[in-house]
Design goal:
- The complex is a heterodimer of chains A (115) and B (111).
- Chain A is mainly β and 115 residues long.
- Chain A has no helices and eleven strands.
- By secondary structure, chain B is an all-beta fold.
- Chain B is built from no helices and eleven strands.
- In chain B, a hairpin with a 4-residue loop joins β7 and β8.
- Classes of the chains: A mainly beta (115), B mainly beta (111).
């Protein structure tokens, strides 16, 4: 059973399009995250939700909109895609808020390529 | 905010040798320091972590040391094996706050 699963694994699209990435965790965790990993492997947090409530919102363009319908799901919608949005997006979950109190469990990533 | 620097960016070792990756952090209030391993095409996975109330922690071939005074912590891998080849990330956080990751180290173990 996959603990944190995200779909799709690969996404190739044109500039200006809108796309979504979905994430689900079956670990019973209260907190979920979206991280962006650029071409240099740098991992940067974008958003964090604790029990459906937004608790971390980094300096991310407002073209990015997360949605958490319940604590097991966190989706990421991106409007008007730009070339610079090309990256691998990781969903993660943790038992407690903030990630600083224990292990983060990552999904396998969604590679977004904007042409 | 917290800043984490990680060195080296790439590291090549012969199988059986030791590998050491070093990180420094800026926020003296940080008290949680995990290390993650990312294999090709996978998400990062926690391999070991340490809290500020201890100076060293070991788990089989991997160990982490922490020097709070110097705001410095290191990952040590002994008797490296080809399957240790991956990207390693250090991170730091205060209790309940977001993790801040280092830039990563690509470790290559040559057999």
């Amino acid at each position: 059973d996959t603990a944190v699963s995200q779909t799709p694994k690969y996404l190739v699209t044109q500039m200006g399009n809108d796309k979504s990435i979905k994430c689900e965790q079956n670990l019973g965790h209260d907190t979920m995250y979206w991280y962006k990993q650029d071409s240099k492997k740098f991992l940067k947090i974008m958003f964090s939700y604790n029990n459906k409530e937004l608790i971390i919102n980094e300096t991310v363009p407002n073209r990015f909109s997360p949605k958490s319908p319940d604590k097991a799901h966190l989706n990421l919608h991106i409007n008007s895609l730009e070339l610079g949005d090309s990256a691998v997006y990781f969903c993660a979950s943790s038992p407690a808020a903030g990630g600083g109190t224990g292990e983060l469990f990552f999904g396998e990533g969604s590679r977004l390529t904007v042409l | 905010g917290e800043n984490v620097e990680q060195h080296p960016s790439t590291l090549s070792v012969q199988e059986g040798d030791s590998a050491v990756i070093k990180c420094t952090y800026s926020d003296s209030a940080s008290n949680y320091f995990p290390w993650y391993k990312q294999e090709l095409g996978k998400g990062p996975q926690l391999i070991i972590d340490i809290r500020s109330n201890v100076g060293e922690k070991k788990d089989q071939r991997i160990a982490v040391t922490l020097n709070k005074t110097a705001k410095h912590f290191s990952l040590h891998i002994t008797e490296t094996q080809p399957e240790d080849s991956a990207v390693y990330f250090c991170a730091s956080a205060q209790y309940g706050n977001k993790l801040v990751f280092g830039a990563g180290t690509i470790l290559r173990v040559k057999s």
